[in-house]
Amino acid sequence: MSRPQVIDDEEHERVHERVAAVDVAKDSGVVCTRTPHPSRPGARRSTVRTVKARMNTIRGLGRQLKKDGIEVVTLESTSDYWRIWFFVLEACWLAVQLVNAAQARNLPGRPKTDKLDAMWLARLTEMGLLRASFVPPAAIRALRDCTRARTRLVQERARCYQRLEKLLEGALVRWSSYRAWPPS
Fold first, then answer.
1. CA distances to 29, 69, 76, 96, 114 from 85, in Å
2. DSSP per residue over the chain, as a string?
3. φ, ψ for residue 118 (rounded to 5)?
């Protein structure tokens, strides 16, 4: 029988050295950044703050995160509230990942607060344990917006045509029997 090989692993293997996570709510977000401690080698420091969900405030946060050398920003996908955070931070040239809330569940028995959720997301991000959801690139998002707007306009046109036809039929005018409508 051969001797067992012992391989020592670090307690927490970090994939990213400097990360941030945002627990998104309707009107604000709790931001947690995890960076190396400046005076104690090997130690980590978490900084938690609440930021209003406003363009200028998030843009200022993005500039600060960029200045701090943050590698990855994680957002929890909460309703549609994540959109402003994602798009503005992405415009600040940060690597932003959106994660499913079910994937980043807290451990059972721990209290659930926005601050603790942000800290938990930051720790999971730091260790590379979260899988990012697909968010299309900006060009595809713009194309989708255009096609959806066109679809809504076509539906609105059809609805107006039907309302006009119903109004005329109420006045005993059979407009749909004429071949010239709708005008081409």
1. 9, 18, 10, 9, 16
2. -PPPPP----SS--S-SSEEEEEE-SSEEEEEEEEE-SSSTT-EEEEEEEEES-HHHHHHHHHHHHHTT--EEEEE--TTTHHHHHHHHHHTT-EEEEE-TTTTPPPTTS---HHHHHHHHHHHHHTT--PPPP---HHHHHHHHHHHHHHHHHHHHHHHHHHHHHHHHHTT--GGGSTT-S--
3. -65, -40
Q: Which residues contact 31 (CB under 8 A, 6 or more apart)?
A: 20, 21, 22, 48, 49, 50, 51, 61, 118
Q: List the Cα angle 70/73/74 in 5-degree steps.
A: 150
Torsion of Cα atoms, 137 then 138 then 143 then 147, to 10°: 90
Centre a 10 Å sphere on the Cβ of residue 53 and count the other Cβ atoms it contains: 19
Q: Are strands 44-52 and 28-36 parallel, antiparallel or unpaired?
A: antiparallel
Q: For the chain, list residues with pLDDT below 50.
A: 9
172: left (phi over 0), alpha (psi -120 to 50) or beta: left
Condensed to tens digits (0 to 9), the pLDDT of residues 61-105 reads 999 999 999 999 999 877 888 999 999 999 999 999 999 877 767
